[in-house]
Design a protein that fits this description.
By secondary structure, the chain is α+β, with helices and mostly antiparallel strands. Helices cover 42% and strands 21% of the residues. It has a domain of 86 residues: RNA-binding S4 domain (Structural Genomics Hypothetical 15.5 Kd Protein In mrcA-pckA Intergenic Region, Chain A), CATH 3.10.290. The longest helix is centred in the C-terminal third of the chain and has 18 residues.
């Protein structure tokens, strides 16, 4: 097999969970093949460059294999190689997102009622000690 539909290939390469999600992404202009907006029926060949945006992540990959059926993740990983620029951009974006987290985001879940009462009692005790 030397070619596959763009939406089927994106689904088989596990960029999207469903084929309809891949189709919607292509129709929405979030996928470009060789720098051009394409339709879901556009045929993807080995050696094509695919640029796709999923959420805040922008990836550029080169097609190294063709599949129109979804397989395991290890098989899907052999269908493409990510460009070095894309890997570097992804690392930089991940670092920015991690540094941009609001204060307290890493504290975990909300305290239970009992834990909150214990915290309040501790704070009251500290205020009394300072007075």
């Amino acid at each position: 097999m030397e070619l596959a539909r763009a939406d089927k290939w994106l689904w088989a390469a596990r960029f999207f969970k469903t084929r309809s999600a891949a189709t919607d992404a292509v129709l929405g202009g979030r996928v470009r093949v060789n720098g051009e907006r394409v339709k879901p029926s556009k045929e993807v060949h080995v050696g094509d460059t695919v640029e796709l945006t999923t959420g805040a992540l922008h990836r550029t990959v080169v097609v190294t294999g063709i599949a129109d059926k979804r397989g395991s993740a290890t098989v899907a990983a052999t269908l493409y190689t990510e460009t070095p620029e894309s890997i570097e951009r992804g690392e930089r974006d991940r670092l920015q997102r991690r540094l941009a987290q609001p204060l307290g985001a890493d504290l975990g879940e909300r305290p239970t009622k009992q834990a909150r009462r214990r915290l309040d009692a501790l704070r009251r005790a500290q205020r009394r000690d300072l007075s």
